[in-house]
């Protein structure tokens, strides 16, 4: 709970960082106006000269393009960024609501499962003393002081210690996976915020260059990339909601099984661990999925680096999982 809250605060800091950096767009507007003004002069002059040289009437409509782009540059934070963010922000809010709903359901089901799992272990006389000090003391009191009873007492202490050690290792590994999972989401959000800030601050320059002949595609490329990067967060929210729904379905089945008085849980979280590993790797595919929604060129190298990073993260998480599970199995065999 505290881990999730801390990462939520970091995501909020990134939102605030984007808002704080937006006034820097005004510093680029002056430079962009000079570039746009010079580009508009050459743009209009070339077309007027071509019409006069061909003895054709001058078409005024195409010459309005530099002036329209110039108006966008003058009011870039409000007209361009304000309009795009206002149109796309409902998508972010909608997906965030879906994620919050699934996260709340998962937490409530997890608490219910933990309670039922404890009750199931308490029902079994062979495992009750492992999790309850009262049951442990009662079992000790029922024993005598014969050599066999003393051996049984020693075995009980060893079994309880092994159970606590095994549970601590499982909890530690689970916490590690949750930390890596939240860190992967934070990495994607940090890179997204960095890209948006760079595109926003240098946006007026991109608009100004699009006036020049040969750079007209700069405007559409900027829009494609900005919208594509903006969609990283909605895609991440949907991915998190999907993982949350999967965990809710798994917890529901576990709760149904624990409702049976004859069911004895084994205490392992293998399926949960597998889906955490899938989630860690899956977060690094978000830029590719966002590019499917909005086709943005010029980002192939980044996507390739992200895919390589995801493979390395998967190998690291898999190696950690194998080492931890191997240690647990080895201790169980010794037990």
Explain this structure to me?
The protein has 13 helices and no strands. It is mainly alpha-helical and 335 residues long. α7 runs antiparallel to α9. The longest helix is centred in the middle third of the chain and has 55 residues, at 147-201. It starts with a helix and ends with a helix. Residues 316-335 have low confidence and may be disordered.
Output the helix-strand order: HHHHHHHHHHHHH
Radius of gyration: 30 Å
Low-confidence stretches: 316-335
What class would the helix/strand composition place it in?
mainly alpha
> Span between N and C termini?
33 Å
The proportion of strand residues reads under 5%
Give average pLDDT, whole number.
Answer: 76
Please summarize the sheet with the most strands.
Answer: none
Q: What coarse outline follows from CA principal-axis ratios?
A: rod-shaped
Question: Can you tag this structure with a few keywords?
Answer:
335 residues; 13 helices; 85% helix; 0% strand; rod-shaped; disordered C terminus
């Amino acid at each position: 709970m505290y881990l999730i809250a801390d990462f939520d605060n970091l995501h909020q800091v990134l939102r605030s960082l984007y808002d704080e950096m937006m006034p820097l767009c005004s510093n680029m507007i002056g430079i962009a106006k000079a570039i746009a003004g010079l580009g508009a002069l050459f743009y209009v002059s070339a077309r007027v000269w071509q019409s006069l040289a061909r003895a054709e009437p001058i078409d005024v409509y195409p010459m309005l393009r530099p002036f329209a782009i110039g108006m966008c540059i003058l009011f870039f934070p409000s007209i361009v960024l304000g309009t795009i963010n206002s149109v796309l922000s409902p998508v972010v809010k909608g997906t965030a609501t879906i994620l919050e709903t699934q996260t709340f359901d998962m937490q409530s089901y997890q608490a219910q499962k933990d309670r039922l799992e404890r009750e199931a272990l308490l029902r079994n006389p062979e495992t009750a003393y492992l999790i309850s000090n009262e049951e442990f003391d009662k079992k000790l009191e029922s024993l005598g002081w014969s050599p066999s009873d003393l051996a049984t007492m020693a075995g009980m202490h060893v079994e309880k210690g092994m159970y606590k050690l095994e549970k601590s290792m499982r909890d530690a590994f689970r916490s590690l996976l949750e930390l890596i999972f939240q860190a992967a989401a934070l990495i994607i959000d940090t890179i997204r915020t960095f890209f948006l800030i760079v595109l926003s601050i240098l946006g007026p320059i991109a608009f100004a260059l699009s006036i020049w002949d040969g750079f007209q595609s700069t405007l559409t490329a900027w829009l494609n990339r900005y919208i594509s990067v903006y969609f990283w967060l909605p895609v991440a929210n949907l991915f998190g909601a999907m993982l949350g729904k999967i965990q809710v379905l798994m917890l529901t089945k576990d709760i149904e099984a624990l409702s049976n008085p004859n069911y004895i849980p084994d205490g392992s979280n293998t399926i949960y661990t597998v889906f955490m590993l899938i989630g860690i790797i899956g977060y690094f595919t978000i830029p590719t999925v966002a590019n499917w929604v909005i086709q943005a060129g010029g980002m192939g190298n980044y996507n390739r680096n992200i895919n390589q990073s995801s493979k390395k993260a998967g190998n690291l998480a898999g190696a950690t999982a194998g080492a931890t599970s191997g240690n647990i199995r080895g201790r169980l065999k010794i037990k």
